Amino acid sequence: MPTTDNSYPKPAVSELTPPDRTLMGPGPSDTNPRVLRAMSTPLVGHLDPSFVEIMDEVQELLRYTFQTDNEWTIPVSGTGSAAMEAAIGNLVEPGDTMLVPTNGYFGGRMASMARRAGGTVVEVDATWGEPLDPTAVDDALAEYDPDIFGFVHAETSTGVLQPNVSELTAAAHEHDTLVIADTVTSIGGVELRVDEWDIDVAYAGPQKCLSCPPGASPLTLSDQGMDKVLARDEEPRSWYLDLSLLEGYWGEKRAYHHTAPITNVYALREALRLVAEEGIENRWERHERLAGALKAGVEGMGLEMNASEDYWLPSLNAVRVPNGIDDGAVCEALLEQYDLEIAGGLGDLSGEIFRIGCMGHSARPENVIYVVTALGDVLESMGADVDPGSGVTATRRALEKTE
Description:
Layout: E1 22-23, H1 33-39, H2 49-66, E2 72-78, H3 80-91, E3 97-101, H4 105-116, E4 120-124, H5 134-144, E5 148-152, E6 154-155, E7 160-161, H6 165-174, E8 178-182, E9 201-203, E10 215-221, H7 223-230, H8 243-250, H9 262-278, H10 280-300, E11 316-320, H11 327-338, E12 340-341, E13 343-344, E14 353-357, H12 365-381, H13 388-402
Helix pairs in contact: 1-9, 2-9, 3-4, 5-6, 9-10, 10-12, 10-13, 11-12, 12-13
C-alpha cells in the first residue's frame, strides 16, 4: 500500500468570499446579473449539437455588435489579448511590415506582437493623449508601404477616441494595406461600424462595455483579411490561435480544435443579447449621456480631463491628478473606504491621470454619482484643491437634463 507523505499538509482554504466592489476602472466592469446566471447553467460538450446552435447565435450577435456582415466573426478562447494576438499573429508573417501608432500603451503592445510574429515594425508618430492625424498616417503609409496598419480606436491608457476612422482606412487601402483595429474599449460602448468604416480586422474584449467576464473575446475578419491568413507561406507561430485551424471549428465543419470555454461562451451570448435588446445605437447614446454626467462632475469639482472634447472617450475617462496628490493612494483609499475601483495611469501617463470607466452595466446613474462623490471626498481629505459639493451638483444637473 502507498505510504502517506505528511510533508505536504492539506491546505486549509476558506470559502470564496471576494469583496463586493463597484467597478469603475478601465475594466472589468460590473457584470449584469443575467450574465452571471447564464454562467451557472449546465455544461454541455463543446461539440454538442446544442452548443453548436449557441455558437451560431453568438456569431450572429457579434456581427450585430460589430456592425458587420463578416462571415469570419468569432469569440477567441481567451482574454482580449488573445484576440489581439490572433489578429496580429495571423495577419503579420515574417517579412511583413506593420505600421503602428505611438500615441498610447496599446499601440506599443501591437508593435511587440508584430515583432514576435516576425514582422518589421514602423511607426506613425502621435503624442500620448492625442489621436492619430490622417495626414501623418497617409505620409507614413507612403514612406513605409506597410502590409498592415494597426490603430487603437479607443485608447484605454489615455482616454482618447480616434476620430476620422474612415479617413485612416481609406488611406491605408489606397496603399493596398490591410487595417487592424483595437476595439477593446469601444465595442458596445461607443459608435463602432466595422463594415461602414472599412476595417479589415477588429478585435475586442468582453469585460469592458459588454460587461462580461473575460474568457471569450470578439474578433472579426473581412474576406480580404481571412484571405491573407489562408494564403500564408508559413504557419503562424501559435498553434492555439491559428485562424486557419480555428476555421474548422467555428466554420461550417465544426471540427474539433480545442475545448472551448463553454461557460464563458454562455456569458458572452447573454451579454450580447443585452446589447441587442437595448439596441446598439441606444447603448452608444447611454454611454455618452452617463459619461457626460461623470465628466461634468469631475470638472465641476475642479479637475481637468486629459483628452480634448473633440476626442474624449466616454467609456474611459482620463482625469488629470491634482498637484501634490498620489494617484495610487487615492485608488487605495477608494477601495478601502468605498469598495470602489478606479485606476491610475499607464506608461507615459503613469502618476498623471486617473482612469475612470463608464462601461456597460457599470454605466448607471447611481454609479456615476457614487464615483464623483467618493472621489471628491477622498481628494478633499488628502488636501486637494477640489469642491466635492459642486461636483455632485454638476453631476445631478447633467443627469436631470438627459432624463
